Amino acid sequence: MSHVNVGIIGLGNVGMGALTILAENADQIELKLGFRLNVRAVCSRNVQTKRLPEGLGDVYITSNWREVVTHPEVDIVTELVGGTGVAREMIETAIENKKSVVTANKELMAICGASLWDRAIAAGINLAMEASVCGGIPIHAVLREGISGDRITELYGILNGTSNFILTEIEKRGAAFDEVLAEAQRLGYAEADPSADVDGYDARSKLAILAALAFGEKITPSDIYTEGIRRLSPTDFQYAHRLGHTIRLVCAARQTSQGVILSVRPSLIPLSTILASVQGAYNAVWVRGQYGADTFYYGRGAGSLPTGVAVVSDLMRVAREIRNGSPERVSPFAHERLGEYKPIPVTQQTRAFYIRFRVQDRPGIIAALAGILAAKNISLDAVLQLPCDTKHNLPFVITVEPTSEQSLREALESMSNLDFLLEEPLALPMETAL
C-alpha cells in the first residue's frame, strides 16, 4: 500500500480545518509518514454548498454518511459531527466495516468511549480521539504516552474556552455576565443555547475523558459534581483580587485515600499561579505526578485549525499503525482496561471557602452569620466589604478557614431562612494546592 485513504464526515469548522491542513500540508505529512495520506471521501448534509480546499485530488462527495463508512477504499473514518445519536451509529458502523476511526466527539467519548474502544480492538482496528479535549493541546498524547511512567495524583484544567472568555472579560471590563455572554455569542464563541458551556457540561465531558486517562477509571460524566458560572459578577472579581485571587471555571481531579474526587466549578485561584494567567478562549491543563511533579500544557482550546491539527495528527498516528503497527499498541485511554469508578462526593473535601452575600443591611448581620458558621465548627478567616452606594442591596464577603464542604453546606442551609438575605449565598472553594 503506497497510501492510506481517509473519509471525513462533518464539514463544520473542525472538518473544514482538517481538510485545509490535509490539502495544504500534504507534502510535509508525506515526508513525516513516508507515504501519502489521501482524502478519499467527504460527507456533509449540505455538502454541495461547501467549497473544498484545492489540492485534495479525486474525492468522493456525498450527503449520505453510510457511503463513507462502507466505501471500499476508505481506511480511516473521521467523525466530526458531534452529539451522541447518529455519531455513535457512524462509529459503530465504521467498526463493523473494520474501518479505523478518528473522532473529536468529547460527549460521546466521555459516555461510551471505553466500550467503543473494546469493540474496535475486537475488530482489529483503531480508535483515536485527541481532538476531543483542549483543541490544539496534545493532552491525550501527554497522558497516554508522554508522562505515562508517572503516577498522576492531581489534575486541574481550564477546559472550556467560552466560559474562560466570559470570565476574563467580566474581570477585565467589569461588565455583567449577560452582556459578555451576548458578546461571546456575536463572536461565535458561544452557541445560541450556551448552557453546555456556561453551566459546565462541556467541561464535564472533557474532564471525564482526562480523568479516565490519568487514573484508569471509567468515569460517568453525570457522577462529576458540576456548577456553572451564571452567578458570577464583577463584584466577585473585585473581592477575589482583594484576596490575591482570580476566578476560573476549574476542572479538578484529585486522587485521595478514598478514591478520585472530581469537580467542575468556579473556584478562586491565586493570582500568582500560572493557571490564573490563562485568558480568553485559551485552555490549559496542570498535571501533578508523584514522581515527575508539575507539568503544564497551554494552547487554543478550540478553533478550526488548532483542532484540525489534532484531528490530522490522529489520522497520521492511525495511518502509521495501519501500515506498520498494531491498533493495540497504546489504548486511547492509556490503560489496557479501565476500572469501575466509585464516585466520591465533593462534600468529603476540606477547603477554604469564599462566601459572597447580598443583604438588606441592618445591625447584627455578621453576628448572625458567624453564629451559624460557629455552630458547624467553621472558623472565619476574614470579612470584607467594599464601598457600596446602597444599603438595600449590599454585597460583602466572608472567607472561612479550611473546613469540610459538608459542614459548609449545612451552614448555608441554616442560613436559607434569614430574612435579610436577598439571594442565597454564593460559595466558591479557594484552591491553595495549585
Search tags:
3 domains; Alpha-Beta Plaits; 434 residues; six-stranded mixed sheet; six-stranded parallel sheet; Rossmann fold; Dihydrodipicolinate Reductase, domain 2; single chain; alpha/beta
How would you describe this protein?
There is one protein chain. The protein is an alpha/beta fold and 434 residues long. The protein folds into three domains: 3-133 and 304-337, Rossmann fold (3-Layer(aba) Sandwich); 139-300, Dihydrodipicolinate Reductase, domain 2; 347-430, ACT domain (Alpha-Beta Plaits). The protein is built from 14 helices and 18 strands. It has helices at residues 13-24, 26-33, 65-69, 86-96, 106-123, 139-146, 161-173, 177-186, 195-198, 201-215, 234-242, 304-324, 365-375, 405-415; strands spanning 3-9, 36-43, 60-62, 76-79, 100-103, 127-128, 152-158, 217-218, 225-226, 245-255, 260-270, 282-289, 293-300, 339-340, 350-359, 380-384, 394-404, 426-430. Strand 12 and strand 13 form a beta hairpin. The model has no long low-confidence stretch (mean pLDDT 92).
SSE order and pairing:
Layout lengths: L2 E7 L3 H12 L1 H8 L2 E8 L16 E3 L2 H5 L6 E4 L6 H11 L3 E4 L2 H18 L3 E2 L10 H8 L5 E7 L2 H13 L3 H10 L8 H4 L2 H15 L1 E2 L6 E2 L7 H9 L2 E11 L4 E11 L11 E8 L3 E8 L3 H21 L14 E2 L9 E10 L5 H11 L4 E5 L9 E11 H11 L10 E5 L4
Parallel strand pairs: 1-2, 1-4, 2-3, 4-5, 5-6, 8-14, 9-11
Antiparallel strand pairs: 7-10, 7-12, 10-11, 12-13, 15-17, 15-18, 16-17
Helix pairs in contact: 1-12, 4-5, 5-10, 7-8, 13-14
